[in-house]
Amino acid sequence: MTPLAAQLATQIAATGPMSLGEYMAACLMHPEHGYYASRDPFGAGGDFVTAPEISQMFGELVGLCLAQCWLDQGAPAPFVLAELGPGRGTLMADLLRATRAVPGFHNALRLHLVETSPTLREVQAATLGHGDVTWCDRVEDLPDMPLYLVANEFFDALPIRQFQRSGTGWRERVVGLEGDGLSLGLGPEAPRPELDHRLGDTSEGDIVETCAPGTVIAAEIGARIADRGGAALIVDYGDWHALGDTFQAVAGHAPTNPLAAPGMADLTAHVDFEALALAATPAAYSRLCPQGTFLARLGIGARAEALAQGLSGAALDSHMAAFRRLTGADEMGTLFKVLGLMPPGTAPPPGLDP
Ligand code: SAH
């Protein structure tokens, strides 16, 4: 048993089963034993590899996309450039390098990173320097200015709850105890007014997921963009209008049982982009776009060729493999999606459709 498993078992024995949301929050963000709070899980030696860690092209194109939004909105100054859950800071480093040539952009930007993990804040500081970066815990803490924001594989790490359809009510999936170990069970049937809109598209036994922390964050971002201007790019795996159990655990690049070793595995769930887009009202939102299509429209093909010119041998092979991994239909190209948020009545960020 991990130390966190023992702690959670004691808590459940005392106060009863906990929601998946509570369980996920403890596993990921517990100050001592939490997965993100205590380690740097990214890269070949870690548990998973994210798009910015695969190739510099990802952060570069995201940066140029946001800079174009900024130019199209009349280059407001100053403005907040923000990233949610920046991991190692790699995306932001590539974004900043690629936008250096955009006149006025660097002078006007105020860089803010929303990150709760002290360990990862240190890694980000090592990548980006302490100088011009401000860290905060919540989107609400960002200064009140036009907001240009990116979040890659952030929303999938937020705690979800699951509900199983039972008649016209729902039973929550909860973490309880079986013998000494943690086990998944179902809470009592209860009406859930907040899920009334899912009664029409679900049948007995179906599971729906909610992510209240995600919709609260999307609402805050949307309100700011509608009020002050700006744009947001939200990149993650998931779909428009989610249905079913997508709760999963990964450790050492392989799927594992989410209850097996709390705090030692990455826990995620697919993102319901519809819920985020609707929560972001009054901001407008783009059509959901596959990552491969988005990157192709922003010119990743030409950028990949330009970078390939200076490479040969193994470096060239790995560059081409990275390109395929980001864009390929059987790789991240269709699994990952991009949602844009923008002020009402304006065009979506480059690469996305209205
Ligand atoms: N965007 C990065 C890392 C994604 S992993 C990349 O693409 O490589 C998720 C990141 O979100 C981590 O940095 C984690 O510490 C952070 N995080 C998770 N939950 C958070 C929360 N509620 N508030 C702020 N940061 C959070």
Main attributes of the structure:
9-stranded mixed sheet, 354 residues, binds S-adenosyl-L-homocysteine, alpha/beta, 25% strand, 17 strands
Structural class: alpha/beta
Question: What is Rg?
Answer: 21 Å
Continuous helix count: 14
Residue fraction in strands: 15-25%
Describe the model:
The structure is a single chain. This protein is of the alpha/beta class and 354 residues long. It is built from 14 helices and 17 strands. Helix 5 (56-72) crosses helix 6. The radius of gyration is 21 Å and the shape is globular. The strands form three sheets. Strands 2, 3, 4, 5, 10, 14, 15, 16 and 17 form a nine-stranded mixed sheet that branches. The mean pLDDT is 96. Bound molecules: S-adenosyl-L-homocysteine (SAH). S-adenosyl-L-homocysteine binds next to helix 4.
Layout of helices and strands:
Elements: H1 3-15, E1 18-19, H2 20-29, H3 35-38, H4 51-54, H5 56-72, E2 79-84, H6 90-98, H7 105-108, E3 109-114, H8 118-128, E4 133-136, E5 147-152, E6 161-166, E7 169-178, E8 181-190, E9 207-210, H9 212-228, E10 230-239, E11 248-251, E12 254-256, E13 266-268, E14 271-272, H10 273-279, E15 284-285, E16 289-290, H11 291-297, H12 300-309, H13 313-327, H14 332-335, E17 336-342
Parallel strand pairs: 2-3, 2-5, 3-4, 5-10, 10-14
Antiparallel strand pairs: 1-7, 6-7, 6-9, 7-8, 10-17, 11-12, 11-13, 15-17, 16-17
The structure holds S-adenosyl-L-homocysteine (SAH).
S-adenosyl-L-homocysteine binds near residues 36, 50, 87, 115 and 152.
